Amino acid sequence: MxxxxxxxxxVVVATPGTGVLYTLAAGLSRGARASVVAAVGCTLGIVPHLxxxxxxxxxxxxxxxxxFQALKYLGVAYLLVMAWATLREKGALVVEEGATATAPRPxxxxxxxxxxxxxxxxxxxxxFFAFLPQFVPAGAPGALPRMLELSAVFMLATFVVFAAYGVxxxxxxxxxxxxxxxxxxxxxxxxxxxxxLGARLAVTER
Length: 206
Known about the structure:
Blueprint lengths: L2 H12 L3 H13 L1 H13 L2 H9 L2 H6 L1 H24 L18 H13 L2 H10 L11 H29 L8 H24 L3
């Protein structure tokens, strides 16, 4: 495995995007455990894109405008739903203590949201379609196992980096407990960020 692949992978996964925002929000609102669970969901959301790239299904998204646009706007719609939920749900980015603390969201819901955030982004499929082959020589023996190995490394890096973001957010969470106005501001920032990412996705082309 080349240093170039590792460096590129770290740059890609560490760049703030929807997955990072979701993991940070989970850490601030529910603590370290929720942020790790969110990181698991975002990592699992990568699997369909990797499978599509490895099996060649990404070529369909690359050549079919209708398929690409359909998945893109599903992703935009989900980001807008996330923005609305962040603003409206009492538990979103509201830190409470003791007996008044909100009931933790089931891990399955946290994971499902993380999966949907990443799975509804067609640019990931196109990215992997262009990214992975660069590190697997054409015609090399064992190309498929090699791509699977690189994919596993990418997913591991995604989980570690996203979890680190979330755990850091959880670490500063208690300092914000007595500052509800700060939490309200953060909630608005996250909601605005989801809207901005949705707008950027809406205008992206293949």
